[in-house]
Amino acid sequence: MNNLQYSAGERNRYFYGKLMTARDFEDEQTYLNDKRRLGNRMLHGAGIVAGLGVLLVDNQTFSLEAGMALDYLGREIVVRDPCVKRISAIRGFDQVKESGDVYLGVAYKEEPCEGTFSVAGSGESGGVSQEFNRVRESYELFLTTREPNRAHLGVEGVLYDLCHLYDAEGVRITLQIPRYVNTDDRFGVKVLFEKRNVSAPVRFSFRIESDMFQGANGEKSVQVEYVETEVTTHKEVTLEYAMDCGPVRDDYTKLLVPADSFSLTLGSQAAEGLEKNLEKAVEVTARPLRDVVLDAYYTGHFDELLTAREDQAIWLAKFHIVANQNALFIEKVTRNPFRQYLPSAQLMDLLQTLAPHGGGIPAQNRPGDPVADSREEKPPVFAPQTAGGVETVILGVAPKTGRTYFSHEFIHGLGAGQLCVSVAVENEDSGGGDTLVFGNGVFTAGEFSLAAPACALGAMVNVKKGTLQLGLKLLEKTTQQSIRLRWWAWKPEEQQPEKEELADEVRVVITPNTANLEPLQQVRFTAMVEGSVSQEVNWSVVEKDGGSIDRNGLYTAPANEGVFEIQAQSAKYGNYKASAYVVVSKL
After folding, report:
1. Less crowded by CB within 10 Å, the N or C end of the chain?
2. Is the dihedral of CA 97, 100, 103, 104 positive or negative?
3. CB within 8 Å of 444: residues ≥ 6 apart
4. If we measure between CA atoms, which residue out of 94, 85, 98 comes closest to residue 56?
């Protein structure tokens, strides 16, 4: 029952007179368990559903809270009662020999319980044999000093690549680079800095380059710099840098960290540099990233999801262990170090409500980001403003048909300016719940279950004062002394005026303006349309036998030698263009 593979999908077929053996009953349980676990794994994923917090009791003991998780085979791990454990009693503690990080995991476990006797024997020999009457689904805690691979613990690998830039002398620098970016969009590159058992302050710098992306100052690179001011022996820091993709159509490019741009010092001692450049391919696409990620996920191999890797476990905590003479102590605990959360559908609904209202700030726009702080702010996006409420209109005693009644004038809360207003009558008795009635006498009490009388509705907006007043005209007799009107008001979406462009100020600039190439060699040209919001250009080669250039500025030299002219023409202002020249010669 502690199986690692899923069944082929055979189930019992029952018929009158069938002889049932232990195999049939075991297959029945296996079939139902495997179906449920397959659904858990494919539909929900793996991670902590609730609870399972780890708290330090003292420097050698921790408390595990009750909770539930799904492992990478879809099995439910349930800790029903909180418990206190000594770290020395956990399986794998014998691997810990020195100071460092130790990871606490939890695994699904089955064990037989409730001893009994088999009156039919064991099947191998006659007589009475001892058996177990139940199988208890439980869990087991374990420790490891080997750091799990983050890329194996979630689905982030579909969208991001983790590239190790440097890992030596207790310092590790890793880059999280997106696999896909959108045309004319901003994206983020994360630099993960980890420090282990290093008492000296760390300082490092390097450059991230690209021929299609640009940083804050319009350059084709971003400078990464970090100086440790608060020195500790262990540290984890995430730096986030923003880059912009220009008007590039579907293409492939790469992010490059040149080896000669990297430097790292430990205190006053310079560490060894990089042996080679770090390069990572990035796909530029105009398709929505949601569609791209879905395609990448569903084209993956099914067996990779069904087979759990060695480090694919539920990791509850990371302990920092300090060796002191003959004893080991817990100095620090980090709960759920890889954020293996598995939110429920209700929690996901709650989290989604935060996005439209600005509940979270995008990583690349947070204050303190190296690029975001020095970057010119983009124009704000204006969304429609809405408001609503209920007002009671007093009719008094013996209201008269054909008479008009008004609410008091009130502040609607959307400020001065023009509004769109909608008004409805609240009908408090509709034979099963309240209804709202819109219109002037279309729905009558004679034809529908209506308690509210037919009436014509109106609203008056004071655009200067920012106030609203509701009114109604009775169209039939009623004994009601008041009517409740529900109203909604909204301001139309404000349009940000486009910046006026003067054609006289437009200028096209090509970089580089000259290039020396060998036959069939390639170079990428970039063009900037100064004085225009539209940066799209059309590329061309003047000479018929002068090679070729694609829509993204990648030029391929011809097989013959010569001097050839490359032109970039503004797509918006066709009269404005610039030229660059390529000298093709054999060395």
Report:
1. C
2. positive
3. 450, 454, 476
4. 85
Long-range contact pairs involving 64-69 (C-beta distance under 8 Å, separation at least 24)? 64/141, 64/316, 69/106, 69/314, 69/340, 69/342
SS3 state at 193: strand
Bridge-based pairing of strands 47-51 and 67-70 is antiparallel
**Cα–Cα distance for residue pair 170/199, rounded to 1 Å:** 10
Give the separation between CA 305 and CA 443, rounded to whole angstroms: 58
pTM for the model stands at: 0.59
Eight-state DSSP code of residue 44: I
Task: Return all residues near 407 (Cβ < 8 A) that are at least 6 apart.
Answer: 391, 392, 393, 469, 470, 471, 485
User: According to DSSP H, which parts of 22-111 are helical?
Assistant: 22-39
Return the amino acid letter for 525. F
Distance, in Å, from the CA atom of 323 to the CA atom of 97, rounded to the nearest integer, reads 8
Q: Are residues 237 and 254 in contact, defined by beta-carbon separation less than 8 angstroms?
A: no
CA distance 518 to 384: 57
- DSSP assignment of 455-491 equals EEEEEEEETTTTEEEEEEEE-S----SEEEEEEEEEE
What does the pLDDT profile of the chain (587 residues) look like in tens digits? Answer: 444 556 667 888 899 999 988 888 888 888 888 888 888 888 888 899 999 999 988 888 899 999 999 988 889 999 999 899 998 889 988 888 887 889 999 999 988 988 888 777 655 555 567 888 888 899 999 999 888 888 788 788 888 888 888 888 888 999 998 988 888 888 888 999 988 888 888 899 999 988 888 777 777 888 888 888 777 778 888 888 888 887 777 788 888 899 899 999 888 888 888 888 898 988 888 888 888 888 888 887 777 777 777 778 899 999 888 877 777 888 888 898 888 888 888 888 787 777 544 444 444 443 334 443 333 444 444 445 777 888 888 887 788 888 888 887 777 767 777 888 888 888 765 444 467 877 666 776 666 667 778 888 888 888 877 778 888 888 888 888 888 888 888 877 654 444 445 556 788 888 888 888 888 888 888 888 887 777 788 889 988 888 999 888 888 989 888 888 999 888 888 788 889 888 888 86
Q: 3-state class of 458 per DSSP?
A: strand
Choose among 560, 537, 532, 534: nearest CA to 547: 560
Per the CB < 8 A criterion, the answer to whether 99 and 197 are in contact is yes
Of 371, 427, 101, the closest CA to residue 214 belongs to 371
Q: Give me the residues paired with residue 569 across strands.
A: 538, 577
Which tokens hold the place of 81? 């009662």
Within 108-179, where are the H helices? Answer: none
Rounded-to-integer distance, Cα 248 and Cα 54, Å: 48
